[in-house]
Structures are given as C-alpha cells and as structure tokens.
C-alpha cells in the first residue's frame, strides 16, 4: 500500500527538507532523489515533490546567475556545483560551446558582440530556457536576431521524419509554444496567444522557421532532400516551402491545406533576451 501524505502536512516542508539533505551530503546530485538517504513517501504527490525540488534549484541558479539578491547568490553556490554533475549542467556547457563557436556576426547586436555571460545574464527565466530547448530536435544555436532574441532551432540536416507528409496547420500547431510570466511570477506556457494577458511579459516563443531565418542559416547544410513549411501566420491564403539546391535556398508556394510527403517542419525557439535586466543588475552591484 502506498503511503499517503499525512493530513495537514505541508508539501513545501518536504521540498525544503530534501534540499537541505542534498546540500549537506558531499557528492550528492539530483539523481539521488528517491534513493537511500533521500527517500520520499510514496503517493500521489511524490513526483510533484521531486519536480518542485528541481524547479527550486533552477530558480536559485537563475537568481544567482542574474546576481539578485545577494543572500540567494551566496546560497546557490552549492547548487551551481550540483548542476555540474547533472544533465542540465552538461546542457548549459554544450549551449555555451555552441554559442561561442558562432561567427561574430551571429553573436552581435547593434554592432556589439554579445558574450556568453551577457546572454546568460539576460535570459528572462531559467525555468523556461532548458525545457524550451529540449522540445527541439538536435538543438543548435542559430544567431541573435535584430530583436535581441537568442534563436535556437532544430539542428538536424533534414526535417524530422515524423513531420514529413503533414500539413502546414497541423505542424504549426504542434510547433507553437509561448511562455510568459504571470502576475504571481510563475512561468506559464500555452499554445494560444489569446490566453496571454495583455500586460504579461512574454519570455519565449517557439514555432516554425521563417523565410528570413531559413535564408540566413542555410548555406547548403539543410533541406537538400526534403522541404520545410515556413511560418506565414494563423490563416494564410498561401504558404511557402523552402528547399536547398546547390547551396541556394529556394521557395515554392502551396495552399496551406496541402499535404506533401516530402515536406516537413523545422522548429525554432526564440528567447527574448532581457538586456535591460542585465543593466539593472549591474547598476545594483555598482
């Protein structure tokens, strides 16, 4: 029989207790949660507790990275070391490597080269960053665009096989992912832009690649065998598909209702970097 939580017991106490046990154990990692020494009572909220621990560590990491507040930055030193031994830490290292290997023009905004440290400090919320990247196939950093967005997309040379033969509307709906911060400071992710409060801060958007993005990134390494639908809005009268022949990107026009076995999708995750937040944090430190 599964052990249920005792009536009236605060689940937040379990989260804080587990965090404390991990922090006081040398060499402990998140992978140890649920094992000997870090056991949790079985029950309907067990996974919720584990998720809460992970979210809290991500929150502490984000506060530390952005330098606010001071006491939280000191507290998070352990958790930064902890994440070096987890998939998240490895993912951040790989993202940094990809970013720093980009040509200078793809790391620049307004004529200024943006360092990796500037990028990290400007990510609006770390709770959305890694999960968003994980929705991509073989993620690859493309560039920083003129809007100050970090553009990350599918890195596979051809559209994923499961997207081939599906229509524009189906693939556009599958690709859509919008994240914003609600009035309580929580990250909310939705597919429907109409659900977002008019004064909410949108921190990232995922969707189909645009014609401009495809033209910028594709120098012959993508779409040589198959084609991809390009973002044209919610109800377009016609849509474009992109392909690459002899290192030249070309486009074809189709009706959005059509389904073609050689056409799929390439998704892009756009993170709204908050450079004003970075400047504010620097002012607080000075």
Short account of what is shown:
This protein has 286 residues and is α+β, with helices and mostly antiparallel strands.
What labels describe this entry?
4-stranded mixed beta sheet; 6-stranded antiparallel beta sheet; alpha+beta; 35% helix; 286 residues; 2 domains; disordered N terminus; 10 helices
Description:
- The strands form three sheets. The chain has a six-stranded antiparallel sheet.
- It folds into two domains: 8-85; 104-285, no CATH class.
- The N and C termini lie far apart (57 Å).
- The protein is built from ten helices and twelve strands.
- With 286 residues, it is of the alpha+beta class.
Lay out the secondary structure.
Blueprint: H1 11-23, H2 46-65, H3 70-75, H4 77-83, H5 87-100, E1 108-109, E2 112-113, H6 116-122, H7 126-133, E3 139-144, E4 149-154, H8 168-175, E5 177-181, E6 187-190, E7 201-208, H9 211-217, E8 227-229, E9 239-245, E10 248-254, E11 263-264, E12 267-272, H10 275-285
Parallel strand pairs: 8-11
Antiparallel strand pairs: 1-2, 3-4, 4-12, 5-6, 5-7, 7-12, 8-9, 9-10
Helix pairs in contact: 1-2, 6-10
Order of strands, main sheet, comes to: 3-4-12-7-5-6
Distance between the termini: 57 Å
Q: Could you spell the SSE succession in H and E letters?
A: HHHHHEEHHEEHEEEHEEEEEH
Tell the overall outline. Answer: globular
Number of discrete domains: 2
Q: What fraction, in percent, of the residue positions are helical? A: 25-40%
User: Helix/strand-derived class?
Assistant: alpha+beta
Query: What is the strand tally?
Result: 12
Q: Number of helical segments?
A: 10
Percent strand equals 15-25%
Mean residue pLDDT: 80
The biggest sheet, with number of strands, parallel, antiparallel or mixed sense and barrel status, is: 6 strands, antiparallel
- Computed Rg: 22 Å
Query: Spans of 5+ residues with little confidence (pLDDT < 50)?
Result: 1-6, 63-85, 278-286
């Amino acid at each position: 029989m599964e052990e249920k939580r005792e009536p009236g017991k605060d689940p937040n106490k379990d989260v804080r207790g587990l965090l404390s046990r991990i922090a006081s154990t040398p060499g402990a990692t998140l992978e140890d949660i649920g094992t000997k020494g870090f056991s949790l009572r079985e029950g309907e909220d067990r996974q919720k507790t584990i998720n809460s621990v992970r979210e809290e560590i991500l929150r502490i990491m984000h506060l530390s990275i952005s330098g606010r507040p001071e006491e939280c930055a000191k507290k998070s030193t352990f958790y930064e070391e902890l994440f070096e031994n987890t998939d998240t830490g490895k993912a951040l290292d790989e993202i940094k490597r990809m970013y720093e290997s980009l040509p200078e023009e793809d790391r620049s905004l307004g004529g200024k080269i943006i360092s990796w440290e500037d990028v990290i400090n400007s990510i609006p919320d770390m709770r959305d960053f890694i999960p968003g990247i994980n929705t991509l196939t073989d993620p690859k950093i493309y560039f920083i665009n003129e809007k100050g967005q970090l553009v990350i997309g599918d890195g596979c040379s051809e559209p994923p096989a499961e997207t081939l033969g599906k229509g524009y509307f189906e693939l556009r709906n599958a690709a859509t992912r919008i994240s914003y911060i609600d009035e309580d400071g929580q990250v909310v992710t939705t597919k429907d832009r109409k659900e977002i409060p008019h004064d909410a801060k949108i921190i990232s958007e995922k969707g189909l690649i645009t014609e401009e993005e495809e033209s910028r990134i594709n120098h012959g390494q993508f779409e040589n065998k198959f084609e991809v639908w390009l973002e044209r809005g919610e109800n377009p009268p016609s849509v474009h598909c992109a392909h690459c022949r002899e290192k030249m990107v070309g486009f074809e026009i189709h009706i959005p209702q059509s389904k073609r076995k050689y056409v799929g999708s390439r998704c892009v995750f756009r993170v709204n970097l908050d450079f004003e937040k970075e400047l504010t944090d620097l002012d607080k430190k000075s």
